[in-house]
Specification:
With about 650 residues, this protein is mainly alpha-helical. The chain has 28 helices and no strands.
């Protein structure tokens, strides 16, 4: 153990030796997007698409996976080149620029909110839940919808690329963290790289075998290790148990401690206290003859209280980031005006040699302005033509207005994310959802709201992610042109893979069943937001409005305390958005993710240096191993091959 730690310390002291000559010898942008990089990206992107889809359909939570994807890209290409070298083939060196392109390559629950199953869950007799507001999932229209809405986001902020990365020097913490990892992987010695590759393969194999092993015991619903009553049967009935999911444990290792603890707090508050108490009021607050899944029964409280937490947190952060962005821009413009009057060039003088090199590469590989403008206009017109044919309830002029407003929304979102690392795309989408629901009327409101929500969310999210990746390319001195091309190819592939991944789950498992594993929580949440926008508070069950007011105020108050208090107090304030997820999904995934955060905490206490090196490796291995098992498990389910054993626990 001591020898291993010494090796790590010695290797980690190695520094990258970059000279001006090396910068000049950087591969041209056409050489940074390689065939092996494309193949690696398709494999890694497909795997992460399945993993993200599982997390989205089960917990409704998807952590940042860029760092994990960059690491997996490094492991994939490093292993590939080593194998080729051993067989006698000549290989080109694997550069950090190529690694940057691989991590770039990559569905939304709002589309699933249009399905018949979600319509029925929202309550057939619910006012505003029109029977005409149904559009069942199909690969054709979903792929077409994603193509037209996602590509707009690629072009919208291209003219402002230099302003946001170089002039404003926005930090984009996730993009910077990915760049630091890639630079570290390519500057460390072979011993450290070998340790990371071996560590990844070890935990990947363990997770894959565990997924295969536990499948044998899950013959029926509520069977298997995923339903193990870890804290007793009474706790199991309230979803408090460890589900033995390596995906959730790995996700917990990637997410911050406060995210995982917020999930656990939300689970205790809802399933530990509130739902049992409200359930005992059956016959007083809601009729006894209603099933718990009815929106006028216990399920209505679960959905609308979680919606109020999400809206409270989202609205506060939306206003905060917009105000912060406007004041920051005003301050920068004022400062720039003063500097021009005084003829000061302090920024250039204060930049280090590395900064100047990075600026030179970023500016040299300029993306012409006409590409951004032309691409945006073409895809906006295409969207305004195609989307109303897919969704007749969403009028073409609403789509056109959305794209006229889109550049300012995308800029605000990307600027805010550069300062805070918070992608507010879903919150901008929720504002659009309520506006369209109110404007489109009772018959058309739900469909128009959900489709319009998808337009704004996709555009704002894709443009923000592109800026994060531009920040990564800036620090790794990768070409912005190559990054943009990688994003375009990755987006095109993602628009095909995402619906295929969804239908893999949709056909193999019972997606949307509130009692099953794949609850698709946000499908129901988004549909009920749209109903709320159409009908107002008439859609709420008894006393639910008062509870919603309370939780909305709680979400706002927690954020205010966090922003106004000292960092020592503020860092312990829970995240209302995270607290809301277990309200609807259950407590089990929060327990799994908290185990991941406990592993990270203890590991850092025991050996901080090794923990920093190996935690991303272990987490990626756990996520990818079980994620890969989903593919054969889905094929077995489609072939009607069921596990031979049902392991279930009953009271004696």
């Amino acid at each position: 153990m001591g020898t291993e730690v010494k090796e790590i310390e010695v290797e980690s002291m190695e520094k990258p030796q970059e000279t001006t000559e090396e910068v000049k010898r950087l591969p041209p942008w056409t050489k940074q997007v390689t065939v092996r990089g494309v193949i690696a990206s398709i494999v890694i992107g497909s795997m992460y698409s399945v993993i993200a889809m599982k997390l989205n359909l089960t917990a409704g939570l998807t952590p940042h996976l860029n760092v994990s994807a960059a690491l997996l890209g490094f492991v994939f290409i490093r292993t590939w080149t080593k194998l080729l070298q051993k067989t006698g083939f000549a290989t080109t060196p694997f550069t950090r620029q190529e690694n940057t392109m691989i991590q770039t390559w990559g569905f939304g629950s709002y589309l699933l909110g249009l399905s018949r199953k979600t319509y029925e869950q929202a309550g057939i007799d619910t006012v505003g839940n029109s029977p005409t507001s149904i559009k069942n999932p199909e690969i054709g229209w979903m792929t077409g919808f994603l193509f037209v809405v996602c590509f707009v986001g690629l072009f919208v902020l291209i003219p402002l690329r230099k302003v946001m990365i170089i002039d404003y020097r926005l930090t984009y913490p996730s993009g910077t963290a990915t760049a630091v990892l890639i630079n570290g992987l390519h500057s460390q010695g072979d011993k450290l790289a070998k340790k990371q590759v071996q560590g990844f393969m070890k935990y990947f194999s363990m997770s894959l075998f565990w997924g295969f092993f536990q499948w044998f015991y899950s013959g029926k619903d509520d069977c298997g290790f995923s339903q193990f009553p870890s804290f007793g049967l009474q706790a199991w009935k309230q979803t408090f148990y460890f589900s033995f999911s390596m995906t959730y444990v790995g996700a917990g290792m990637i997410c911050s401690h406060i995210v995982n603890l917020s999930l656990l707090l939300g689970a205790v508050l809802s399933w530990g206290i509130m739902w049992p108490l409200i359930g005992n009021l059956k016959g007083h607050w809601f009729p006894k003859n209603l099933p718990d899944s009815s929106m006028k029964s216990l399920n209505g409280y679960k959905v609308f209280i979680s919606v109020s937490l999400i809206l409270g947190d989202g609205l506060y952060n939306f206003i905060k980031v917009v105000v912060f962005s406007i004041t920051s821009i005003y301050g920068r413009l004022k400062h720039q005006h003063q500097r021009q009057n005084l003829k000061i060039v302090g920024d250039e003088q204060s930049k280090t040699l590395d900064d100047l090199k990075q600026d030179e590469v970023f500016i040299r590989e300029n993306i012409p302005l006409w590409i951004g403008v032309t691409g945006y206009i073409i895809f906006s017109i295409l969207s305004a033509t195609v989307i109303p044919t897919m969704f007749p309830q969403l009028k073409w002029y609403f789509v056109l207005v959305a794209y006229i407003m889109a550049p300012s929304l995308a800029f605000c979102n990307a600027y805010g994310a550069g300062l805070t690392d918070i992608n507010m795309a879903y919150n901008y989408a929720k504002v659009a959802l309520f506006m369209l629901a109110a404007l489109s009327g009772k018959e058309n409101g739900v469909v128009a709201a959900l489709a319009g929500c998808g337009i704004i969310k996709s555009m704002a999210s894709v443009s923000c992610n592109l800026m994060q990746d531009f920040k990564t390319s800036y620090f790794t001195m990768a070409s912005p042109r190559a990054m943009f091309l990688s994003q375009a190819i990755g987006t095109a592939i993602g628009c095909v893979i995402a619906p295929l991944s969804f239908f893999l789950f949709y056909n193999a498992f019972d997606v949307g069943n509130p009692e099953g594993e794949y609850k698709a929580p946000f499908a129901l949440i988004y549909r009920n937001m749209a109903i709320l926008g159409v009908e107002g508070v008439a859609a709420l069950p008894q006393h639910c409005l008062q509870l919603c007011y309370g939780f909305f105020a709680f979400a706002v108050m927690v954020n205010i305390i966090k922003d106004l208090s000292t960092p020592k107090i503020g860092k312990w304030m829970p995240l209302p958005m995270c607290m809301a997820l277990p309200f609807l999904v259950g407590a089990y995934f929060a327990i799994d993710m908290c185990l991941g955060t406990l592993i990270v905490f203890v590991w850092h206490k025991i050996d901080n240096k090794k923990a920093e090196l190996m935690i991303p490796v272990v987490a990626s291995g756990l996520i990818c191993g079980e994620g890969l098992w989903i593919l054969p498990a889905s094929i077995l389910a489609l072939a009607k091959i069921t596990p031979p054993i049902c392991m279930k626990f009953l009271a004696s």
